[in-house]
Amino acid sequence: MHRAGPRVLRRTHAGTGRLAPAPPAGRDAVGAIGARRRLRWMLRGPAATSDLEPNKKMKRVRSILLLLVFFFTSQTYATPGQPLSAQGWQRQVVTFSVALYYLSPPSADPARAARSLAADPRFAMQVVEKPGKAAYDTALLHIVDSRNVARDSAPPSLESLRYFGRGLTREQAQALQKAPRAVFLTFAHPGSQAITRLRRAEAFVAELVRQGQAIIWDEETREAFTPQVWESSRLQSWEADTPDVARQIVYHAYNNDGQTRVISLGMAKFGLPDLVINDTVWSLNTPLGTAMSSVGQQLVESGPANDKGLLEFRISGFRHAGARKRLRESVLAGGSGQGRVRLLEAPAEEGDPDNTLVALHFDTYPGSGTTERQTNFVKAVFSAKPDEVIGVRPNNALREASERARLQLPALQKAFQRGLSPGELLLVKAPFATTDDRREFMWVEVMEWKGERIKGMLRSEPRFVPSLKAGQIVDIQQAEVFDYLHRWPDGRTEGNETAKLLK
To answer: How far, in Å, CA of 434 to CA of 345, rounded?
Structure first.
């Protein structure tokens, strides 16, 4: 099958050619979610293999919130692909909603308690029955009290809570299904007060639930919290008046016509657009998730991009010490820890947050295509552990290992064409001609597999093929495949037979 003579094989870092280290504990990793649907849930563990059908939760409150969004959002937008104007970067009025689902009948009236607490000088919010222009100057609170939760706003299902429940026990999740009462809080305040008012709103919610045990639902990030986790992940993550932005938002990643789309949810609470990365691949989700966290932190701490959409960030310069430490841990030796992206308005897709969107573009980095530029951004900012390149001669053991791997290709092709689970990766190793008539075998992340043709992103950094670069989109023939690596969302792997002979 292979011609005689020296060849170049490689053994990748961790067996997968990962471009960045495993994500640190925290909120910077991107959660995998399924195909497009009206609402997409953040996944914290193994990705779901079936779609989670959203219920009609928060229907009334969402209608009110949408009215507030349309009422207060600036009309000075750019067009998709163009920089936002100065007015488009910051809402004049910020609105967001939180729901409190009570697991048992509260001993005191929670709606009355909310009205009373709103008047406390620490929170100083005016309770209103309808949204109005007063929010341009004053902090407002709209309260909806439901005593028929199943009719007005059915809570998230048990299946859904597996993925976006934060700290809930199974008993709490089951009790939530029969919540006897819920209170929905919609906050509205001037955009100039977005950061301080967000912290006060979170403290308001924390104090209110101490008066009666409830599960907290964040409508912007679509997550459910126990009061204890709300305190630890939201309130305690602030440093003075500086938020750890990654603790306030989430990232969703999903398959989008053979490629991956990543989007943030929750930036509207700061009065800022949500962030999008289009046309990427699953293997880049960890470093690009860290990049999105860095961009979000920069926006909140230092303001918007310039009039050409350019934004520079330097991780070591962030004021928030916890965020700075966590993000710096993602930078390998040789990484600069600073980068530049261009933020341009992006069109919304079904299930996106009700907010302006800006897409991260990496056009200041070299590359002939999108994924190559993304890869070069990742290498420049976070660095990458290089593959180990090994020169070998053909031998029977390698041929046999390769043949065992190739026998699995028909089944792998069928599995790929049925659709991989979110976060599931399939790579193939194939030869590329070098300038001295040898062959360099490199990993390709499969993006499309039709008949004998495989299209994917080159994961390896070529050493002896100067015409190719890591991140470039390449085409190979199935007959050329030498080995494969199949990785599941839970970390299990299969294949990579030839690597055992290269140790």
So the answer is: 41
d(CA 360, CA 341): 6
Beta-carbon count within 10 A of 24 CB: 16
| Residue range of the domain that includes 465 | 396-501
* Separation between Cα atoms, residue 363 and residue 344, nearest integer Å: 12
Average pLDDT of the residues in 467-492: 95
Same domain, yes or no: 149 and 97: yes
- The answer, yes or no, to whether residue 20 has pLDDT greater than 60, is no
Concatenated DSSP letters of 30-61: PEEE-S--SS----SSSPPSS------TTHHH
Bigger pLDDT: 80 or 19? 80
pLDDT in tens, 214-262: 999 999 999 999 999 999 999 999 999 999 999 999 999 888 777 899 9
Q: Which two tokens stand for residue 328?
A: 């710096």
Q: What is the pLDDT of residue 178?
A: 95
Q: What are 430-462's pLDDT values in tens digits? A: 999 999 989 999 999 999 999 999 999 999 999
- Are 484 and 372 contacting, i.e. CB atoms less than 8 angstroms apart? no
The pTM score is 0.84
Look at residue 358 in the predicted model and tell me its pLDDT: 98
Q: Which residues of 73-86 are buried (b: 16+ CB within 10 A; e: fewer)?
A: bbeeeeeeeebbee
In a domain, 446, yes or no: yes
Q: Give me the number of domains the chain comprises.
A: 3
- Main-chain dihedrals φ then ψ at residue 162, nearest 5 degrees: -60, -25
Q: The tokens 């890869």 sit on which residue?
A: 375
The burial of 399, by beta-carbon neighbours within 10 Å (0-12 exposed, 13-18 middle, 19 or more buried), is given as middle
Q: Of how many residues is the chain composed?
A: 503
Q: Which residue has the tokens 């910020």?
A: 94
- What DSSP letter does each residue of 147-192 carry, written as one string? S-HHHH-PPPPHHHHHHHEES--HHHHHHHTT-SEEEEEEEEEEGG
User: Rounded to an integer, what distance in angstroms lies between the CA atom of residue 242 and that of residue 440?
Assistant: 49
Largest CA distance in the chain: 83
The pLDDT of residue 334 is above 70: yes
Q: How far apart are CA 489 and CA 103, in angstroms?
A: 33
Regarding whether 107 and 232 lie in a shared domain, the answer is yes
Alpha-carbon span 220 to 202, nearest angstrom: 13
Q: Are 250 and 266 in contact (CB under 8 A)?
A: yes
213 and 331 share a domain? no
Please report the pLDDT score of residue 388 as a whole number: 59
Residue 86 tokens read as 């100065």
If asked whether residues 401 and 337 sit together in one domain, one would say no
Q: Please tell me the distance from the alpha carbon of residue 26 to that of residue 288, in angstroms, as a whole number.
A: 15
Q: Which of 293, 260, 287 is nearest to 275 (CA)?
A: 293
Spatial contact of 344 and 83, defined as CB atoms under 8 Å apart: yes
What pLDDT shows up at residue 186? 97
Q: Which of 447, 388, 397, 501 is nearest to 12 (CA)?
A: 388
